[in-house]
């Protein structure tokens, strides 16, 4: 992964451009100045995104030591030692560099995976199973236009097999991915209508994805999927097409038997006229299909059946994303314990930085399984990453990582244990209180046991927040906005149940312009957690003025008395304190009305040295309701009128805004300077216009804690409201109305999901527990996960059952429910 600057100039076809240092070493690619490891050897790409322009960070990159910059715009007054590559398109330049790097290794056999689901799982399973050669892959789910480029840059001289997944969301994206990867083998997983808004039909979506296999010699797929089989045969009639499935006409193998038990599946296939049986350690349809895809690749690579069975039975459904959970002793834990390689370690460390706030950072890690590198080389790379992230303490497990302590910066405490069991025995002796702890390791070390030992077990029901879904929704709304409009992210009521501190850190990292919370103490909490971006207080208490001034919080001002008290507190000092003026344009809640404006303006003019108006805004009463559109337009027109009057009087033009999530979607003419993104950020669309584009963020899960037999003559729960029509079984789950599962969901009004099937709530919901009618289902076990709502079980269904709205469902979720945050 090392080249020189002159080679990059050649790749980017700008050889005539003078480089002050053509022999400069380049070993890293970056698009983010917050993630620089060796800046002097980094090639920085100034990419334009939906929320920010990388050109704005060129000076920051240079100040941090970057000596090689790729950008689309001419930059004046560059330091004389910086190599500057001006290109028409920075993204295409990044992809060109990645494609060139891949081309330097012609002996690398490459498998590319695409499809709607299963890409990351199959890639990770194959990475675990293929042990007879050195394998390189995407870290996590780095399968986008930029993610694939960064993944390909990892390829090294001794890599023998590459596994790269590629994902697209709209037409004309796959051409660039294919040009970078140029795979030898293609694998197509499944085809669904998920995220199909960028395509006119499923056929168009499939055809676009299949562009990835343009130069493949061999393509693997499930031949029982008729549309996939038909289109692949039409597009690539001369390629080697290896299909599998139940149909005897499949060309690689036929699945002739499938038997499911509680915990595993027995699969029988016919391959080259011979019967073979494989045991798969799961029973759900998706995992079985992923396993069969993996078997197909292993057979193609010539791996013996006994070895395939051995590897296949050892795999597990593993978490593909970083998980942030709360630990004992006020810790936060970043759990990433299913593999250990350098690229995923960098990603995990960046996430630790993002979430640590004011806590000291600790890393618990095992020896890495980085084939093709010596222990000394691996440890030096690990040390370089740790040294760049202000870590206070490192605790290492495994003999191969014992020498790491000698490579760490002075001041980093280093502890070592030969085995995980030893570390568990000593864990209580380490000073881990109030820390942010990354737990990162290869699966063989079972560091998930460390996570379990440190995690808060007070309540096993959990609300999971998908931070990547937050980012996706943010991007969807950003792309819908006018170019100059910025976003105020609404995270009041503990970010609608998600936890405001954790979400605020993520949104700040994603460079949202403003945050808004309801009360002063929420803003103070965020400042104490290290949040630095502007914070608006939507319902400021007069008694909180000292805290707002101290912590630079920006209050909503909505009446004259409130403004006068603020002015009185500020006195005659020239403080330039920032405020936001709320106008009542017909909601008849908080806000200035028309008759207030003359006196308001007089106060603002008189005290202009003390007060600076950041924005003038209002609130729509029914932005999601087409029947009230005439009233909505009237409200917007009223705000514009009030704004014109105030800005004319005070002599400058603050920002203005009126739209919430539904308004952003339905009224682009009123995007103005800011919009306020609340429920839409969490994947909930009151208009149902963006519903298929957004991703649900929250997953609420409980567990089965007991199973009982019940007869049709018996009754269940308080007031004997629960009745069954025949003999069967009930399951008790560990969530109740004190946790936020409203009592209206009881008595058959709502179903929960266990092992992919729906089961009704029977009887009244109790304070801490809920009872489920599971009939005569023999598969359900104590400890099984119970889904209340999630990605494919909409929260809206629970809201409808409880005769309320998703807002109330989310904000009712009790603080005793554990919170978990997952990230790619």
Key descriptive features of the protein:
single chain; alpha/beta; 14-stranded mixed β-sheet; 9-stranded mixed β-sheet; 39 strands
In short:
The chain has 824 residues and is an alpha/beta fold. The longest helix is centred in the last third of the chain and has 22 residues, at 629-650.
General description of the model:
The longest helix is centred in the last third of the chain and has 22 residues, at 629-650. The mean pLDDT is 90. The radius of gyration is 29 Å and the shape is globular. Helix 4 (119-129) packs across helix 9, helix 7 (202-210) packs across helix 8 (226-235) and helix 21 packs parallel to helix 22. 30% of the residues lie in helices and 24% in strands. Strands 16, 17, 18, 19, 20, 21, 22, 31, 34, 35, 36, 37, 38 and 39 form a 14-stranded mixed sheet that branches. The protein has a 9-stranded mixed sheet with strand order 8-9-7-10-11-12-13-14-15, sandwiched between helices. It has an 8-stranded parallel sheet with strand order 29-28-27-26-25-24-23-30. With 824 residues, the chain is of the alpha/beta class. The protein has 25 helices and 39 strands. The protein starts with a strand and ends with a strand.
Write the layout of secondary structure elements.
Blueprint: E1 3-4, H1 5-11, E2 25-26, E3 28-30, E4 42-45, H2 58-63, E5 68-71, E6 83-86, H3 90-103, E7 109-114, H4 119-129, E8 135-137, H5 145-152, E9 161-165, H6 174-181, E10 185-188, H7 202-210, E11 218-222, H8 226-235, E12 240-245, E13 253-260, E14 265-271, E15 274-280, H9 285-300, H10 305-314, E16 322-326, E17 332-336, H11 342-356, E18 360-366, H12 375-387, E19 393-397, E20 413-417, H13 420-426, E21 435-440, H14 448-454, E22 462-466, H15 467-480, E23 486-490, H16 492-496, H17 500-509, E24 514-517, H18 520-528, E25 535-537, H19 545-550, E26 554-557, H20 560-570, E27 577-583, H21 597-606, E28 611-618, H22 629-650, E29 655-657, H23 661-666, E30 674-677, E31 698-710, E32 715-716, E33 722-723, E34 728-733, E35 751-754, E36 757-760, E37 770-775, E38 785-789, H24 795-801, H25 806-812, E39 818-823
Parallel strand pairs: 3-4, 4-5, 5-6, 7-9, 7-10, 8-9, 10-11, 11-12, 12-13, 17-21, 18-19, 18-21, 19-20, 22-39, 23-24, 23-30, 24-25, 25-26, 26-27, 27-28, 28-29
Antiparallel strand pairs: 1-2, 13-14, 14-15, 16-17, 16-39, 22-31, 31-34, 31-38, 32-33, 34-37, 35-36, 35-38
Helix pairs in contact: 3-5, 3-6, 4-9, 5-6, 7-8, 11-12, 21-22
